[in-house]
Write a structure and sequence with these properties.
Length: about 500
């Protein structure tokens, strides 16, 4: 690519050109520089295989819409009231309320700033009224804006799973324990602050607590129904997304009647889909950019360079954490996932890092990057929302960043925290592997590549005219292929036998 174009793209990025435009232009120029490469054909392959045909992408607008509906309804007030009734008696009780409520909302909004506006805008004045220090209160609501990224149904987790080619359901499970650890770390700090400064507490009233819980029952049932449906096998991830959107719409419009069907709903749809459109535009162009990086074997070049000075998994994870926090500061989370994940996944696998553990480490780093000076996105959102100098926000978040950094160290170097729950779940969901995964490293044929887009092995192509499995078609004229050898003791077809010894 001509140097002039490189300089022009960098200049446009500095001047504030939309990120999707930068990615798209870079992808076109890079592919155009490759010999014997058709940009049109490449774009068609990239978007059909990696983007347009993915059944999981429908979850993004559905979950985002649900988050916007909840934010525009009375849910923030009910959630805060319920959390305060149950947690207000604890040291730093109101701060605990802020953490729990923020984590709940961020799961649906992806750390887009809605949480800071909806929950932070509600609780920041309350924290100040209860005599919490201003810097502590600002740091708390700013940090809370990204606190729920590791809890289902986090949109960034869905996008990560699509890009990395791993099961979304298992990734949700992988994030539960690390997510609890991050909330607990900030909870301990909040409790310590409450005790030190003798913050006021509310006396626990069982009657009021259950009354508040009853008022919030429909929102409280949502995560239970969502997780129960997915892990019981009743709902797949895209079905769970549709259920969440419909459920949220019904309870807020017709049960609570907080959202007007004619007055509020068109505006909510417009605003939520504007965000979704921005996400999809970034994803589409970033996928094109990463396709070039992969085709140009950039991950392999990086791996070869790293092997010169990184010799162990621990050293790789240290370097990865430093790199990803920088990425989280400079890029929005959706662009970071699409651009960076294809680069680091093959490298991480070479160093023996579990793919689900890698996903949690990746997202936790970006969660910290959201609030890391000087350019963490949440810092600017809080500065604008609460009309405070950005330098004050820098000071206010430092203790919280330190605690999240400690949580990151624990999660990074104790992989079992991320891998234990996924290991307990057996699922037939299809993992979205790369197109060149048809053969293992040893040359053996990988039957996973034969699976369809939904569940299980797709034998439709082998069926006869009567929709019965016609195995005779697989045998040669002399019955060279003995299918009896593939049957198990119970006379069921054992396809694993095909994977053992590849033919020479």
């Amino acid at each position: 690519m001509d140097t002039m174009w490189i300089v022009l793209l960098i200049a446009l990025a500095i001047l504030g050109a939309p990120l999707f435009a930068i990615f798209g232009a870079a992808a076109m120029l890079l592919f155009g520089a490759l010999p014997d490469t058709s940009i049109t054909g490449t774009a068609n392959d990239v978007f059909s295989e990696k983007f347009a045909d993915s059944p999981l992408l429908v979850t993004i607008p559905l979950f985002t819409f649900a988050g916007y509906v909840l934010a525009e309804s009375g849910t923030p007030n009910r959630l805060v009231k319920m959390s305060r009734a149950w947690l207000g008696w604890m040291p730093g009780g109101l701060a605990m309320v802020c953490l729990v409520a923020s984590a709940f909302f961020t799961t649906f909004t992806g750390g887009s700033g809605i949480t800071i506006v909806a929950i932070g805008g509600l609780l920041y004045p309350a924290l100040i009224a209860d005599k919490y220090e201003e810097n502590f209160s600002l740091g708390l609501v700013t940090t809370g804006g990204s606190l729920g990224l590791l809890f289902p149904p986090s949109v960034p987790m869905i996008i990560y799973g699509v890009v990395a080619g791993i099961m979304i359901e298992k990734l949700f499970l992988a994030g539960l324990i690390p997510g609890i650890i991050t909330v607990a770390a900030l909870g301990v700090y909040s409790a310590t602050t409450g005790i030190k400064n003798k913050m006021p507490r509310t006396k626990f009233d069982r009657k009021e607590a259950f009354k508040a819980l009853w008022e919030t029952k429909w929102e409280a049932l949502l995560p239970i129904a969502l997780l129960g449906g997915m892990y019981s096998g009743l709902l797949r991830i895209h079905e769970a997304a549709a259920f969440t959107a419909i459920y949220t719409l019904v309870i807020e419009v017709w049960v609570y009647k907080d959202v007007s069907f004619r007055g509020d709903l068109p505006r909510i749809i417009r605003e939520s889909m504007t965000l979704v459109g921005a996400i999809l535009a970034i994803l589409a162009t970033a996928i094109g950019f990463t396709a070039f990086l992969i085709q140009a074997r950039v991950p392999m070049v990086i791996l070869e360079a790293m092997e010169g000075f990184i010799s162990s998994q621990v050293m790789f994870l240290i370097a990865l954490n430093v790199f990803l926090i920088g990425v989280g500061m400079l890029m929005d989370i959706f662009s970071a996932i699409v651009v960076v994940v294809p680069l680091i996944v093959p490298i991480a696998l070479k160093f023996g890092v579990d793919p689900y553990h890698l996903g949690i480490v990746f997202l936790l780093n970006l969660e910290i990057g959201y609030m890391t000076p000087p350019v963490g996105l949440n810092l600017f959102i809080s500065s604008f929302r609460f009309n405070k100098p950005i330098t004050q926000l820098y000071r206010s978040v430092l203790p919280f960043i330190g605690l999240l950094g400690l949580a990151l160290i624990i999660v990074t170097y104790i992989p079992a925290l991320s891998t234990w729950l996924p290991s307990l779940v057996e699922t037939n969901a299809v993992e979205l592997g790369a197109p060149d995964d048809s053969f293992d490293d040893d040359g053996a044929f990988d039957l996973d590549s034969l699976e369809g887009d939904d569940e299980g092995f797709d034998l439709d192509a082998l069926e006869g005219d009567g929709d019965e499995l016609d195995l005779d078609a697989l045998e040669g004229d002399g019955d060279e292929l003995d299918l009896d050898a593939l049957e198990g003791d119970d006379d069921e077809l054992d396809l694993d036998a095909l994977e053992d010894d590849p033919p020479e």
